[in-house]
Design a protein that fits this description.
Two copies of one chain form a homodimer. Chain A is α/β, with parallel strands linked by helices and 324 residues long. Chain A contains 14 helices and ten strands. Chain A is 44% helix and 15% strand. At the A-B interface, helix 12 and helix 14 of A face helix 12 and helix 14 of B.
């Protein structure tokens, strides 16, 4: 039994890792002397942009859908997403032979819309400024009897995303700091759970765009704050509020929330292009941007940072690396 | 004692691996279900674009310079290169505290010129259409008493590059085929030596641009052929003849030489951007291009392929991934 309302434990992350074995990539960890020189620390980048479908989201989606009953699988799944969760659910559903309907904003990056279709999912588009996606998805789930796969507020999703930090800490011992981008908080909550379980003294930070600082505001206040849809190039972090399930975990386990500007995200994407030879999408560059911008003093420290995804339209990417 | 004229043995590659331990990155091997579906095989990509300075060239350069005597180190090194070898020598020399002069064509990619300068090397530019770089470099070596570090025709360089295949075969068992890009043949010869030593039944193929098929012609004829400077986007493969030392190794150990078009290289770079989230330079995409273009029937086979580098100007890369 999984779902909202149930707490997430380290054992759930271990169980997720078992489910994902041989299905998800165990993504590489890369280092850069240039990055170390820039930050003064020793930085280990966990490359979830090299995950299947190009982002960590596959982990949570697969972990969630794999736990459906046979009857639930036959009725299929519904998800709403600005992009990577859509692809994650579509691919996981395809692998598990489950029909999937994805509700996507009509202004989602073309590459993400196309990839989601390619994984065999049915797509329903909506206008993110005038329509409430949760209501659309809930109605669809009701009409079709399909199971809703939420993007972050779900124990199985959080546990799946937590396998990112689990692998990183298995591969790299003695991390002092872990920096994780956050939208709704699924990756951050899952990674905080895994990291603190394996290494209680670690300091885990979330990073979000300045324009979408709902997590930072909520963290400062101690309770969930709602903001308008943020205008940022980080299309994976346009959430308006931390998750109900993710926020208490983040509040309990994290050391703080950092914010980065869109320019900082662009500079981090260029750094990843020039120095790391990695394609990173705007949201995926948030943790790297926080380090490059000195948002945290990591001098002399061993720092894990998650590059969360690499799904970005060619035209947009071309403009950004060319300095646009 | 290293240098041209001396044969290269598998033990030299093992010794190079020891020298490079903790200095070079052990680069990750990535897989893609999409690539497997496209080729019908199971493909393992060794990501030397994620090597220090962005290409495999660092391995050979470091292995060569590390074997200089103290007196030779004080007099410094000279190298000639269209790009990545320059950076490899510059970085290796910097790490080993050896002065370096690099002779580079004036039309080398700006990113490669800048990076070479950044590693602290002195750069001398020349016109590749009217001047003979070997003569310039040899004169410089003579005037300054510096040791020449050739880009491929050197036992220590070949042994260093061979560590790429050594690592790949250590990480992935039972490869049937290995596909390696080739310019002068240092990477190909070194990888063929390592691969055949570890797995005698493996079929090793070289890949070069159609316009610069000096290796293919030479392989077909059984002796080294000289061609005019080839016009191709693969700036790392504009050699006019296989190496004196590399060719006999390739002739003895390889199964064949494949060629790919510039359009094939561009398509492979786009595939790497869209599907692999890896920045790959034109030459670095040659082995991938050969597989994507079906230049070799690999259905049902386990295939290693080397992505050799990722150093490409942002403007050029932007144009290529945008379909230009």
């Amino acid at each position: 039994m999984t779902g909202i309302g149930r707490d997430v434990a380290f054992d759930d992350i271990l169980a997720a890792a078992e489910r994902l074995r041989g299905v998800a990539h165990r993504t590489p960890v890369v280092t850069s002397r240039t990055l170390d020189a820039r930050t003064g620390g020793r930085v280990f980048l966990k490359c979830e942009n090299l995950q299947r479908m190009g982002a960590f989201k596959f982990r949570g989606a697969y972990n969630r859908i794999a736990q459906l009953t046979d009857a639930e699988r036959r009725r299929g799944v519904v998800a709403f997403s600005s992009g990577n969760h859509a692809q994650g659910v579509a691919l996981a559903a395809q692998l598990l032979d489950v029909p999937a309907v994805i509700v996507m904003p009509s202004d989602a990056p073309a590459a993400k819309l196309a990839a989601t279709r390619e994984y065999g999912a049915e797509i329903i588009e909506y206008d993110r400024n005038t329509m409430n996606r949760n209501e659309i998805a809930a109605r669809l789930a009701l009409e079709r009897g399909a199971a809703l796969v939420p993007p972050y507020d779900d124990a199985a999703i959080i546990a799946g995303q937590g396998t990112v930090a689990l692998e990183l800490l298995q591969d790299v011992a003695d991390l002092d700091v872990l920096v994780v981008c956050t939208g709704g908080g699924g990756l951050l909550a899952g990674c905080a759970l895994a990291a603190v379980a394996l290494r209680p003294e670690i300091a885990v930070y979330g990073v979000e765009p300045e324009a979408g600082d709902d997590f930072a505001q909520s963290f400062a206040l101690g309770e969930r704050v709602e903001i308008p849809v943020p205008q940022t190039i980080a299309d994976g972090q346009q959430t308006t509020s931390p998750g109900e399930l993710t926020f208490p975990i983040v509040k309990r386990l994290c050391a703080g929330i950092l914010t980065v500007s869109d320019d900082g995200l662009r500079a981090a994407m260029r750094f990843a292009f020039e120095r790391l030879k990695l394609v990173v999408e705007p949201s995926g560059a948030a943790a790297l941007a926080a380090l490059l911008d000195g948002k945290l003093d990591v001098s002399g420290k061993r720092v894990g940072a998650i590059i969360s995804g690499g799904n970005v339209d060619a035209a947009r990417y071309a403009a950004i690396i060319s300095g646009g």
